[in-house]
Design goal:
Largest interface: A-B, 140 and 137 residues
Number of domains of chain B: 3
Oligomer: heterodimer
Order of helices and strands of chain A: HHHHHHHHHHHEEEHEEHEHHHHEHEEEHH
Radius of gyration of chain B: 37 Å
CATH topology of one domain in chain A: Rossmann fold
Strand content of chain B: 5-15%
Largest sheet of chain A: 6 strands, mixed
Number of strands of chain A: 10
CATH class of one domain in chain A: Alpha Beta
CATH superfamily of the largest domain in chain B: P-loop containing nucleotide triphosphate hydrolases
Chain lengths: 612, 609
C-alpha cells in the first residue's frame, strides 16, 4: 500500500470500493482453499471402496444404486453425492461472485482515482506561472500525467491484490499445509521461500535488462530519425551504404540485447518452474514414505502421520501457495516504482505560482493608462537586464507603436503588463496603481493580447475567436473577424466559421493565423490591446485596413503595436524606438524622422525595400 | 489518421486476403525454416511430456491405495515415481528452455532482416518520396511495425501450436482412460472458446475507445500545456479545465466499461471451468462405483488425474481465442511495412548508366522545365552553360527557383522537360553515385550528425586520415575555431549540431565537402544571419575554393559573389539577367536594386552597432 498527502483522501472518498473489494479478495482466498479439502474427501471415500478386500460385496449393493453406494459409514452414498456436489457448486458460485466483486471494485476504483488525480494535477498546473513552463518541456510535463499517474494508481488495484494474495492466501495455505503435516509443509515450502527471497532481485535485474532494451530501441529509432532528417546530406555524399552499415550495427546490438532480455525471462520462468515443481518431487518422495513407512519419521514429533487424503489436500494447498510466493517480488517492485512516481507527483503539486497576487485587487473602473517608471527587468533565470530604466507614460486612448531590432526588448516591455513575471514595486503602474496591486485575473480581463507566435487551439475557427468568452454571439465573432480582416478568408473555407483548425483540420497560412488570433483578442473590446508583431505575415494592403480599423474602432482605448515595418506605426499617436533594452526616443513619426537617427535610417531602408 | 483507418479495417474482421499479406513475409522465415520446424517439434514434445504429470499423480495415488489396502511396505514404487517425476520435469524444462530461446532467436533474426531491408529501401527512395510522409512515420515503420510483424512468427504461430497440442493431448489422454469423461471435457471446450472469442471482440471495441480517448487526452494536454500562456492571458483556465474534465471523464468511463467486461468475463470463465470439473466428478464417481460391478477397476487415482486435466483446460482454450485478436494488430503493421517495401524507387540508374571517375566540370542546362507539383512550374525554359573551372552564381528573390537548380544538378529530382548535361553527358546516363561523388554539395540546411567534428567531416569514410581532415579545415578556415575547442576535432556535436553557431556549422560543412576533393562544387548559401567575423571567414574560404573546379553558388548575400565569373538573376523561374557584377550594376535592373537594398541594410545595422 502507498500513502501520501495527495492520495490519502482517495482512500476516504472511495472507502466502500476498497472495503468491499478487500473483503471479496479475502473471501476468495479463503474459500478457494476448501476445494482441495473437498476433492481429497471425495477421493478418500472412493478409495475406501477399493479398501474392501472383497469387491463382490460391493456389487450387490451397487446393483441397487438408488439407495446406497458401497456400505459402511465411510463409503460413498447418495447423500454424500448430493453433499459434495452441492458444496462444490456453492464454493464455485461464491468464488465466482467474489471474484467479480473484487475485480469490479478494485479495478474501477483505480480508474476513478486515476481520473481524479489527473483532474487535480491539471487544474493545479493551469495555475502555475510562465517561468514554471519555461523550465519544463511539454514532453517532460506530459510524463507526470501519463507514466507517473499510471504507476501510482497501479498500487490501488494490482498492489492491493498482490498484497492480499501474499498475506491471506500465502499464510492460510501454508497454515493448512502445516495442519496436514508440519514437517512436510516446511520441506515443500523451502524452495518457494527461497524464491520469494530472491524474487525481488530477479525482477530488479529483469527491469534493468528491460530498460537497456528500451534504451537500445530508442537509439535505433533516434538513428533512423536522424538519418531521415539529414537525408539530403546522406544523399549528397552518397552515404546510403555506410549509413546502412551503421544501421545494421545498431540493429544487431538491438537484436542481441533483445535476445539477452528474452533469454533471461525464459531463465526466470524455468527457475520458477524448477523450484515450484521440485516441491512436488519432495511431496511424492516424503509424502509417499510417510504413508507407507511412518516409522521412518518416528523421531520427528507429530510428523509421522499422513494418509492419502492428506496428501491430496496438501497437493492442492501447495498449488495455491506458488502464486503468492511469486507475487512477493512483483509487489516489492510495484511499490518501489509507485513511490518514486508519487514523489514526482508530490513535487508537481507542491509547486506554487511565483507571481505575487494582492490580497484585494483594485476594484476601480479599469481605464487603461499605462506608466513605466524606471522600469528595469531581467528574467528569473538570468541576471542579464533585458529592460533598462524605461520611463514612459501612455495615456488612456493612445495608439502607440513600438519599433526596434529583433531582441531589443519590445516584447518583454509589453509582456510586463500581463503579470507573467514578478516586477519590482512601482515600476509598472496601470491607472496609477502599481501592477503588483492588481489581481492578474482582473488585469488580464481588460487586456487583449496577440502574441508574436500565434497559438491557436485545435478547434473550430469560431470557437478560437470566441476563446475569451464561449457565450459570445455569432455577430460579435463575425465583427471581430471583420476587424482583423479575416472574415473574407474564413467565408472562403468550405465550412466557414465551422472549419476545424489544427493537425486534423485545415491548414491556415501564417497571416490567417495571425489575424484569427487578433480577432480573438479584440472580441471583448479590451481597454488595452497589445499587438506583438502581429501583422508580420500580413500583406501591406490588409495591414493598412487593419490599422484603419484600429483607428476607427479603438477610439478612447489604449493600443500598443509592436512592428518591424515603419508603415505599421507611422500614423500612430506615438512611436517608441527601442534598442538594446533602452528607449532611444519616442514621439510622432514626423518628430522621430527629424530627431532620431535610428528611426530615420529604418525609414530609408524600408522605402527601398518597397521598390524591390 | 491513416493509422486509425488501417486499425479500423482490421478491427472489424480480417479475411483470408489479409492473411495473404503475410505471405510476402514468409520468405523471411525461410532461412530459419529448418530450426523453426525443429523447435516446433520440440515444443510438441515438451507439451506431451508435461501432460504426463496428472497421470503420474493418478498412478501414484493408486499405488499408495493398493499398498495400504494390502498392507505392503515396499517403497520401491515411491522412489521410482519420484525419480520419474523429477525426470519428466527436467526433460520438460530443458525442452521448454531451448525451444523458447530458439523461437525468440528466430523472431529477433527476422526482425533484424526485415529492418535491414526496409531501411535500405527507405535510404534509396527519392527526396520527393521521402517528403510524402512525416519522418516519424518512417521511423515507426522501421522500429515498431517490424517488431509487431515478427510477432506473427514467434508469438502467433508458436502459441497456436502450443495451445492446440495442449488441448489435443488432454483429449487423447482422457479418451484413453475414459471416453465418457473425455466427452464431458470436449463438450466444454467450444463453450469456453466461444465465450472468450465473443468477449474479446467486444473488449477490443471498448479497448479501441480507450485508446482513442487516451490519444485525445494526450493531444489535448500537450496542446494545453504548450499553449498555457495563451490560456492564462485570456483567463480561460476554468474553461479549459472543464474541457479537460470532459475528456478525462470520457476516458474514465471507457476504462470502466472495459473493467466491467473483464470483471464479468474472468470470473465466468472460472465458473465454467469449475462446472466442467464438477461434471467430471459427477460422471466419474458413479463410473468408478459401477466399474467395480464390471470388474474394470476405474479408480480414484484416475479420477484425480482427470480432475487435474480439467482444471488446466481453460488456459489453452482462452489463449487460442485470444490469438485471433492479436493477429489483427499484426496485420495492420504488416500492411504498413509492406506498403514501404513495395514502393518503387523513382530515381534509379538506367541500365546503361555510365560510371565517371572524374568530371571536367562543364555544366549545361538546355531548356529545362521543372515542377514539384504537376503544372506548377518552378523553372521555365532555363538554359545556361558553365565552362570547366568557372564560378557562377544564381541570385533572385525567395522562391525564384535558385535552390531548385542545385537539386536538379545532383538529380534529387528528375526534370520534366529539357536536358541537363555534365561534360556533355545527360545526367540520366550517369550513375547516380558517381554523379554525386564528383559534385561536392554545400547545402543550405547544414545538417550535422551527432558524433564529433571529425566524424562529421569524414562521414564514416575511414580511408580519410586525420591529416586530411585538418588540411580541409585549414583550407576552409574552420581550423581557427576548432583549435580553440577543448577537445578540438573530437569535440562532441550534439543533436543537429546546436552547440555550434550557424557560421561554425557552415564551415564544418565546407570542410566536409573539401575533404572529398570534388571536381564540381555547388553551394546553397545559408539564409541564417551570420556575424561579420564569420562572414569574412566564409568569404575567404569561398575565394579559395574557387580554385578547385567548377563552382555554382546560390547566393543570398550579394557581397559573397562580387568576384564570380557570371551571375544569373532568376525571377519566377526564369533567367532574366546575366553577366558579371559590374555589367549588371550598370544595367540598373533587378540585380542593381537587390544590391542597393542589401548595402542599405548593412549600413543600418552598422549604424546601430
Amino acid at each position: 500500500m502507498i500513502f501520501g498527502k495527495y492520495i490519502n483522501i482517495y482512500y476516504k472518498k472511495y472507502w466502500a470500493y476498497f472495503v468491499f473489494g478487500f473483503l471479496a479478495l479475502i473471501v476468495v482466498d479463503i474459500v478457494q482453499l476448501y476445494i482441495p479439502q473437498l476433492v481429497a474427501e471425495m477421493i478418500e471415500k472412493l478409495t475406501n471402496l477399493y479398501n474392501i478386500n472383497n469387491p463382490s460385496n460391493v456389487v450387490d449393493l451397487v446393483t441397487d444404486p438408488n439407495k446406497i453406494w458401497g456400505y459402511g459409514t465411510n463409503l460413498f452414498n447418495l447423500n454424500d453425492y448430493y453433499y459434495y456436489f452441492g458444496t462444490f457448486s456453492l464454493i464455485v458460485v461464491v468464488i465466482g461472485l467474489c471474484r467479480f466483486i473484487w475485480r469490479y471494485c478494485l479495478n474501477i476504483v483505480q480508474v476513478k482515482i486515476e481520473a481524479d488525480l489527473r483532474h487535480k494535477m491539471f487544474y493545479h498546473v493551469e495555475n502555475l506561472s510562465t517561468s514554471f513552463f519555461n523550465m519544463q518541456k511539454t514532453g517532460g510535463l506530459m510524463a507526470y500525467f501519463t507514466n507517473d499517474i499510471e504507476s501510482v494508481c497501479c498500487v490501488f488495484s494490482d498492489g492491493l491484490i498482490y498484497s492480499v494474495d501474499v498475506l491471506v492466501l500465502g499464510i492460510v495455505a501454508f497454515t493448512k499445509m502445516c495442519l496436514v503435516n508440519w514437517f512436510l509443509a516446511i520441506i515443500c515450502a523451502l524452495p518457494m521461500i527461497f524464491f520469494a527471497c530472491i524474487g525481488y532481485y530477479i525482477e530488479k535485474i529483469q527491469s534493468l535488462k528491460f530498460e537497456k532494451r528500451q534504451e537500445r530501441f530508442e537509439r535505433l529509432s533516434d538513428m533512423v530519425q536522424e538519418n531521415l532528417s539529414g537525408i539530403t546530406v546522406v544523399k549528397a555524399f552518397c552515404k546510403e551504404i555506410s549509413e546502412a552499415k551503421k544501421f545494421a550495427n545498431l540493429n544487431k546490438s538491438n537484436k542481441m540485447v533483445n535476445q539477452d532480455f528474452l533469454k533471461y525471462s525464459v531463465k526466470v520462468d524455468v527457475l520458477i518452474n524448477a523450484l515450484a515443481y521440485s516441491a512436488f518431487f519432495l511431496l511424492v518422495l516424503f509424502g509417499g514414505l510417510m504413508i507407507i513407512r511412518p516409522e521412518f519419521f518416528s523421531m520427528i514429533p507429530l510428523a509421522g502421520h499422513l494418509d492419502v487424503k492428506g496428501m491430496v489436500e496438501f497437493f492442492g494447498y501447495y498449488d495455491s501457495l506458488i502464486w503468492p510466493m511469486i507475487a512477493i517480488g512483483m509487489l516489492v517492485n510495484i511499490i518501489s516504482q509507485s513511490k518514486a512516481s508519487l514523489k514526482r507527483i508530490t513535487y508537481l503539486l507542491d509547486q506554487k505560482n511565483e507571481v505575487r497576487e494582492p490580497k484585494i485587487s483594485s476594484d476601480k473602473e479599469f481605464v487603461g493608462k499605462i506608466e513605466f517608471r524606471n522600469l528595469s527587468f531581467n528574467y528569473p533565470d538570468s541576471d542579464n537586464k533585458v529592460l533598462k530604466n524605461i520611463n514612459i507614460t501612455i495615456d488612456k486612448g493612445m495608439n502607440v507603436g513600438i519599433i526596434g531590432k529583433t531582441g531589443c526588448g519590445k516584447s518583454t516591455l509589453v509582456n510586463t503588463l500581463l503579470k507573467l513575471y514578478n516586477i519590482e514595486e512601482n515600476m509598472v503602474l496601470i491607472d496609477n496603481i502599481d501592477i503588483n496591486n492588481w489581481n492578474s485575473k482582473v488585469l488580464r480581463e481588460h487586456i487583449g493580447y496577440v502574441a508574436q507566435e500565434t497559438f491557436l487551439f485545435s478547434d473550430y475557427i469560431d470557437a478560437n475567436i470566441a476563446f475569451a468568452d464561449e457565450n459570445i454571439s455569432e455577430e460579435m465573432i463575425k465583427k471581430a473577424a471583420k476587424f482583423a480582416c479575416v472574415d473574407d478568408n474564413i467565408q472562403e473555407f468550405k465550412n466557414g466559421y465551422k472549419t476545424m483548425i489544427g493537425e486534423r483540420g485545415a491548414t491556415l497560412s501564417g497571416g490567417q493565423k495571425q489575424r484569427i488570433s487578433m480577432a480573438r483578442a479584440i472580441i471583448k473590446n479590451p481597454e488595452i490591446l497589445i499587438l506583438d508583431d502581429s501583422v508580420s505575415a500580413v500583406d501591406s494592403n490588409t495591414e493598412k485596413e487593419i490599422l484603419a480599423n484600429i483607428k476607427k474602432d479603438r477610439k478612447n482605448k489604449t493600443t500598443l503595436i509592436i512592428a518591424h515595418r515603419i508603415s505599421a506605426v507611422e500614423d500612430l499617436d506615438m512611436i517608441i524606438v527601442m534598442d538594446n533594452g533602452c528607449v532611444v526616443d519616442f514621439g510622432t513619426h514626423e518628430y522621430l524622422k527629424q530627431h532620431c537617427k535610428l528611426y530615420k535610417s529604418l525609414c530609408e531602408l524600408q522605402s527601398l525595400e518597397k521598390e524591390v | 489518421m491513416e493509422q486509425q483507418i488501417i486499425d479500423k479495417k482490421y478491427d472489424e474482421k480480417f479475411s483470408m486476403k489479409d492473411l495473404a499479406l503475410i505471405k510476402n513475409f514468409i520468405k523471411y522465415l525461410k532461412p530459419y525454416l529448418g530450426s523453426f520446424i525443429f523447435f516446433i517439434l520440440m515444443q510438441i514434445a515438451a507439451t506431451f511430456v508435461m501432460m504426463a504429470e496428472p497421470l503420474i499423480w493418478g498412478d501414484f495415488l493408486n499405488n499408495l491405495n493398493k499398498s495400504i489396502a494390502e498392507n505392503l511396505t515396499d517403497i520401491r514404487f515411491i522412489i521410482v515415481t519420484s525419480i520419474l517425476y523429477l525426470l519428466m520435469y527436467m526433460v520438460y524444462l530443458i525442452l521448454y528452455y531451448f525451444c523458447s530461446v530458439g523461437f525468440q532467436r528466430i523472431g529477433q533474426n527476422i526482425v533484424y532482416d526485415i529492418r535491414i531491408d526496409i531501411f535500405n529501401k527507405i535510404e534509396h527512395l527519392s527526396i520527393a518520396q521521402l517528403n510524402s510522409l512525416p519522418i516519424g512515420k518512417y521511423v515507426t515503420r522501421v522500429t515498431n511495425d517490424t517488431q509487431n510483424l515478427s510477432m506473427f512468427f514467434t508469438d502467433i504461430l508458436v502459441s497456436l501450436f502450443r495451445n492446440v497440442f495442449q488441448i489435443i493431448s488432454v483429449i487423447i489422454y482422457c479418451f484413453i482412460t475414459s471416453w465418457q469423461i473425455a466427452l464431458v471435457i470436449v463438450a466444454f471446450i467450444p463453450v469456453i472458446f466461444v465465450i472468450s472469442y465473443i468477449t474479446r471482440i467486444k473488449a477490443k471495441r471498448n479497448f479501441r475507445q480507450v485508446r482513442n480517448s487516451i490519444s485525445e487526452l494526450n493531444a489535448f494536454m500537450s496542446e494545453s500545456l504548450s499553449g498555457m500562456k495563451t490560456i492564462q492571458i485570456f483567463n480561460q483556465e476554468l474553461r479549459k479545465g472543464r474541457e479537460f474534465d470532459n475528456i478525462n471523464n470520457k476516458l474514465k468511463n471507457n476504462w470502466i466499461r472495459v473493467m466491467k467486461l473483464w470483471a464479468i468475463y474472468y470470473p465466468s470463465i472460472y465458473v465454467i471451468n469449475m462446472i466442467c470439473v464438477i461434471c467430471v466428478f459427477a460422471v466419474g464417481v458413479p463410473m468408478i462405483i459401477n466399474s467395480y460391478a464390471e470388474h474394470q477397476y476405474l479408480d480414484a487415482g484416475t479420477l484425480f488425474s482427470m480432475y487435474l486435466y480439467t482444471q488446466q483446460l481453460s488456459g489453452p482454450v482462452t489463449n487460442l481465442a485470444n490469438l485471433f485478436n492479436r493477429i489483427t494488430n499484426i496485420l495492420s503493421s504488416t500492411e504498413k511495412v509492406y506498403s514501404v517495401l513495395s514502393l518503387e524507387t523513382f530515381i534509379e540508374d538506367s541500365p546503361n548508366a555510365k560510371k565517371i571517375e572524374k568530371f571536367k566540370g562543364e555544366i549545361e542546362f538546355k531548356n529545362v522545365y521543372f515542377a514539384y507539383i504537376p503544372n506548377q512550374w518552378v523553372l521555365k525554359n532555363v538554359s545556361f552553360k558553365i565552362k570547366p573551372g568557372e564560378t557562377c552564381a544564381f541570385v533572385g528573390a525567395t522562391g525564384a527557383g535558385k535552390s531548385t537548380i542545385i537539386s536538379l544538378i545532383v538529380r534529387n529530382y528528375d526534370i520534366q522537360k529539357g536536358e541537363i548535361l555534365i561534360d556533355g553527358i545527360n545526367i540520366k546516363d550517369i550513375q547516380i553515385e558517381s554523379l554525386r561523388k564528383g559534385i561536392g554539395q554545400m547545402l543550405q540546411d547544414v545538417f550535422l550528425f551527432s558524433g564529433n567534428i571529425e566524424d562529421n567531416i569524414k562521414l564514416d569514410n575511414n580511408s580519410i586520415s586525420h591529416e586530411e581532415v585538418v588540411k580541409a579545415c585549414q583550407y576552409v578556415g574552420a581550423d581557427t575555431f576548432i583549435e580553440k575547442l577543448p577537445n578540438k576535432y573530437n569535440e562532441i556535436v550534439r543533436e543537429r549540431g546546436n552547440n555550434f553557431s550557424a557560421g561554425q556549422r557552415q564551415l564544418i560543412s565546407f570542410a566536409r565537402v573539401m575533404v572529398y576533393k570534388p571536381q564540381i562544387v555547388v553551394l546553397d548559401e545559408a539564409t541564417a544571419n551570420i556575424d561579420t567575423e564569420t562572414e569574412v571567414l566564409i568569404q575567404d574560404s569561398l575565394n579559395k575554393m574557387r580554385n578547385i573546379g567548377t563552382m555554382i553558388i546560390v547566393a543570398h548575400r550579394l557581397s559573397t559573389i562580387k568576384n564570380v565569373d557570371t551571375i544569373y538573376v532568376l525571377d519566377h523561374g526564369e533567367i532574366i539577367e546575366q553577366g558579371n557584377h559590374s555589367s549588371l550594376i550598370d544595367k540598373h535592373g533587378l540585380y542593381y536594386r537587390l544590391y542597393k537594398l542589401q548595402n542599405m541594410q548593412k549600413e543600418v545595422l552598422n549604424d546601430v552597432q
